[in-house]
Design goal:
heterodimer; A: about 190 residues; alpha+beta; Aminopeptidase; 8-stranded mixed β-sheet; 5 helices; 8 strands; B: about 120 residues; alpha/beta; Rossmann fold; 5-stranded parallel β-sheet; two-stranded antiparallel ribbon; 4 helices; globular; transferase (chain A); MshD_Acetyltransferase (chain A)
Chain lengths: ~190, ~120
Amino acid sequence: MTPDRFPEEVADDYPEPPIAFTDREDREIEVRAYDGSERERDALAAMYEAFDSADRAQGIPPGHADEIRKWLSTILDADCYNVLAWHGDDVAGHATLVPAGDDADEYELAIFVLQKYQEAGIGTRLIEALLGYGQADGVEAVWLTVERWNHAAVSLYEKIGFETSDAESFEIGMSLRLNRPERTADADEADE
Amino acid sequence: MKVLLGIGGSDDSLRALERTVDRAVAADDDLVVAVLENPDSDRTPEEVAEHVESVLADLEADIDVEVRLVEGDPGSRLIDIAESEGFDRIVLGGGQTSPMGKITLGSIAEFVLLNAKTTVTLVR
């Protein structure tokens, strides 16, 4: 599921959250890292409860309140990176990086923008802020899968800098390198 | 109903085994379990076949299930068997989930879905 290979070249620097901007519908939006509080978790759960299932991707987000809570409890875990796009007290969008396992250097990315906030430029800012957050914290590489027919998402990911790593299945696999691989002690010695 | 279950040893295929056997007992299905060579599976076909036998041995109901080791390309062999022996349905595991929780179909399921003339069930 995790791609075998990632791009060798490191992507550009992405902006770190918080990021404030006015979207194309003249709404004031602020992208911030999830602070771990109940209040923010509840606001995010409310976004997913209002989410149109037509925009579900490979089974997520789940459709029912208790399933949403269960799913959020895994991806809001301390070893994941989460950023939220706020419009006042409402969550307009959410992007997340989830590690493939313990000590993983590679993180799976997903992003969801509530329907009434789509096509207003929020997704791009949200994903850039997420990548900036992970990049600053030393995340090495990021990957995702996206349904083949979802052209809007594929072109967003390409614009951000993702490369296609697997085009042979129903879903396209894409990946991006945020930081150089950590050098091992052996490699350092060999250089000397 | 004449049911052909294809399993290659991935976790979702083992879940499909349990559910399909339960259904076969309840519905009196005529079940054949085809153990496939799945390149993405950590378990060998022999290990998978042993697992199938142990699941069947634990059953309290008395049903007759045939277990076959199928060599060669898993998707196309499964479809051949289903068509040449007149199965009503092919059953497969419904995909693995990514760290994020996204459903990802295996390569066998993708091939069978696109190519089978037989109705296909994916077990979730």
